Structure formats: structure tokens, C-alpha cells
Amino acid sequence: MSTSLRSTALEPPPGAPWHRKLFSVYGMVVLTVVLFAVFAVARPDTFATLLNFQLLTASKSVLLILALAVTVPMVAGKIDLSIGYGLGLWQVMALSFQLMGLDYRVALVLCLLGGALVGLLNALLVELAQVDAFIATLATGQVIYAVTFWHTGGRQITDGAGQRAAAFDGLATWSLGPVPGPFVIAVLLGVVLWVVLEHLPAGRYLYAVGANPRAAELTGVPRRRYVVGAMVASGVLTAVAGILVASRAGGVVQSNIGPEYLLPALTAAFLGSTTIRPGRVNALGTLLGVAIATIGISGLQQLLPGRFYLEPLFNGLTLVAAITIASLASRRRVAQADAPPAATAPDEGAGGVRADPGGGPADTADPPPGTTPDRSTSTTRPPTTTRSTP
Questions:
Q1: Which of 78, 84, 323, 332 could join 73 via S-S bond, C-beta 3.0 to 4.6 A?
Q2: Which domains occur in the chain, in start order?
Q3: pTM of the complete model
């Protein structure tokens, strides 16, 4: 049994020109290179520098991890809108647990377990209660937001006495050569997700569940188990992002951080579904979606300094474009599925087979006298005769 899925909604057919394949599959890669080149030429002293690279990769690492957290449920045909609120909760709790006297490693484990618990709660609402994932995760996010405000009292939590561990702050300050450590963590998580989705059975099962849940069940795929796993993985990745936010905050956390990450993460995931594997959400596409947003926003802000509306405007327009492309792809897929099969050309060879103009099965030519046509084959047989008994 094969559960490998390949979407052809945006992919060119076999035999298409190379340039069509390039722009259909790798159009976003080309756009990323073009954007980088344009901004590097326009602002060579600030944009195309090692310092700008380090600043952007360090600041966008959390966004990349959250975009991956969105990607996993989307592969299974669900959506998790609680990630932004979850990030706010876990960045608060990562510091609060240490202020309660817990070792920072225990605090990290508790945050990861809490993220998994939130993901499990979302999965129970979606699978057992059969609540729409959009509504269920949005409601869960609001509850998480309320818990965060209750815990902080709407105020900042500050580590004035220096109770947090130095190693906790080190999570955000270490580097691999010139590459910031949080960016290394985010890319490694993206590579792991890519391997799982593209090269392991679990990934193929997730795609099967997302494409057609009922068909996946009929072929033996435990749909519910994979949906639960996807939501739990999303919750854990959200907790990782929250931990990194807290580690770079310098001992100051607040409850209103988190929701502003939701729209950029969704934008990156939707945009990623239009490239690399056009027509389906994929990990490499999500990485590329974050790269496009990062390059575009940074370049525009350097060209037009002081325009604080550029980031939400860019994210909003990009999200609209990505959803529009996905919608057009879906309609094209439905149209291809509903189209009747193409009629076959008439065969003038032996047997006199001709094609049915309606695309149906072929019929044989008119039989010779004294024979009866056999609809199951293209051969003829002698007539059947009966003889009465005297």
C-alpha cells in the first residue's frame, strides 16, 4: 500500500518547458534571490552586511520555530491559532519557574510538558468533541492569554535579584561561528521536520490524513493518532519558541508578548505551500517563507526608515497573496478531478475498433452477417443455434 501523496495543483505537467518548471516550483526561491539583490544594491552599507545577517537571524529564529509549529497541524489538515498565546505563556513561565526556586533545566522541561499538554487539549477538542480546529484553537488561545494575565497580574515579571541561571541566558547568546545559536536551533528543527515529512512513513501518513481523512482511515492509517501527534508537536515547538524569547529578555517578561507572532507565522506557512512542493504545506517552503518575509521587511524598512506600518502591511499583503494562490490551486485541482477523460483517437488497424466520442469504453465495428457482437472483447463468435427435439 502506498500512502505517498504528490499534489499536481501547481506543478507543471511532464514534458513542460524547463522555465515553466523553474518558476512554478522554485518561483519563490527566485523571488528571494531577486529581493536580496535589489536591497543589497540599494543599501550596500547596511543590508548586505554580516551584522545585519546576525541581527535578522537572531531576531527571526523565534518566528521560524513558530512557523514550523503552524506547519505540522496544517499538514494534517488542521490549524493551530493558539501558538501566539502559548508563546506568551511559556516565556513568562520559563522565568517564573526559576523565580520559584526551580533549577532552570526543570523549568525548561515543565514548559515543554506544558506545551505538549496544551497541544493535547487542542487535539481532544478537535478530535473527540469534533469542534472545528479554527474555533477550538482560537478559544484555547484566549484561555491561555487569560491565564498569562492572571499569573502576571498584567505587569512585568522582573528578575531583580538575579535568580535565573546564567546558562538560561546563554541559550540566546551562544553562536556557531558567526551564526547565532537560536538560528541554528530553528534550522535544525526545520531539517528534522523536513526529514520526517518527506522521508519517513509518519510524514506520508500525515499528508494522507490531511488530503482525505476518510480515505486514510480506509487504508489503515490511524487518523486520530496522527492528528493528536501533530497538535502535540505544535504545542512543544511553541514552548521551545517561548523559552528562547525568555532567554533573550534579560530577566524581564510580560504577558502581552506573543499574539503579534501569529500572523507572520501563518503567512510563512501559507507562502511556503506555494513553493518547493507547490500545492501542499512543506517544511522547506516554510523556511523559505520566513526568509522572504525577513528580507522583504528588513529591506523596506532600510529603504523607508520610520515607516512602522511596513511590517504589518507586508505580512497582510503576503498572506492574502498566498491564500489566493492556494485557493486558485484548489479550484484547479477540483476542475481537473471533475473533467471527463479525454477521448481516444480512432484506431484504423485490424479489428475495426473505434472510440466512443463521449470518452466511454470502445465498441467494435459492425459485425459481419450471422454473428452476434460480444461487448467484452473485440472478436466475434459464431451465432448460437437451437435444435428442437422431435
A1: 78
A2: 23-334 (1.10.3470)
A3: 0.80
Q: Which residue has the cell 523559552?
A: 243
Q: What is the pLDDT of residue 23?
A: 63
Mean pLDDT score of the chain, rounded to an integer?
Answer: 82
Question: Based on the number of CB atoms within 10 Å of its own CB, is 175 exposed (0-12), middle (13-18) or buried (19 or more)?
Answer: middle
The β-bridge partners of 354 are 363
Question: What cell does 171 get?
Answer: 541559550
Confidence of residue 71 (pLDDT cuts 50, 70, 90): very high
Quick check: 282 and 198 in contact, CB under 8 A?
Answer: yes
| C-beta neighbour count of 4 within 10 angstroms | 10
The cell for 265 is 507565522
Average pLDDT over residues 145-161: 92
Amino acid 319: pLDDT: 81
Q: Which residue has the higher pLDDT, 334 or 168?
A: 168
Q: What pLDDT shows up at residue 240?
A: 97
Beta carbons of 269 and 322 less than 8 angstroms apart: no
